[in-house]
Amino acid sequence: AEPPSDRAVPVATELDGMALAAWIRYYAAEYGVDPRLVTAVMRQESSGSQASVPPKGALGLMQLMPATASALDVDPHDPIENL
Questions:
Q1: Each residue's pLDDT tens digit in the chain (83 positions)?
Q2: Does 2 qualify as catalytic in the annotation?
Q3: Bridge-partner residues for 59, per DSSP?
Q4: Alpha-carbon gap, residue 71 to 65, rounded angstroms
Q5: Nearest-CA neighbor of 61 among 70, 29, 74?
Q6: 17-31 and 35-46 are packed helices; what angle lies between their axes, rounded to 10 degrees?
Q7: pTM for this one?
Q8: d(Cα 62, Cα 39) in Å, to the nearest integer?
Q9: DSSP per-residue codes, the chain
Q10: Catalytic residue among 2, 30, 45, 81
């Protein structure tokens, strides 16, 4: 499967709902996870907002802690990498 074609989304921006849903489906299939679970975790953690930064310091859609993002070698400010 190829990732959705809108990968050119700039870092630290929100994805529109259609693009976000496409990326969730892509990564869910890639890792064998139900996309409804990914969506539920994202909604619980950030209400679907890439800009969400709670007091504990987690970042982005899936609320990655900086150390976790570093260990995974992802940019937590990039909504696609945060998924």
A1: 566 655 554 444 567 778 889 999 999 999 999 999 999 999 999 988 888 878 889 999 999 999 999 999 999 989 999 99
A2: no
A3: 64
A4: 10
A5: 74
A6: 120
A7: 0.76
A8: 9
A9: -PPPS-TTPPTT-PPPHHHHHHHHHHHHHHHT--HHHHHHHHHHHHTT-TT---TT--BTTTTB-HHHHHHHT--TTSHHHH-
A10: 45
76: Cβ contacts below 8 Å, ≥ 6 apart = 59, 60, 64, 66, 69, 82
d(CA 83, CA 79): 6
Is residue 79 within 8 Å of 15, Cβ to Cβ? yes
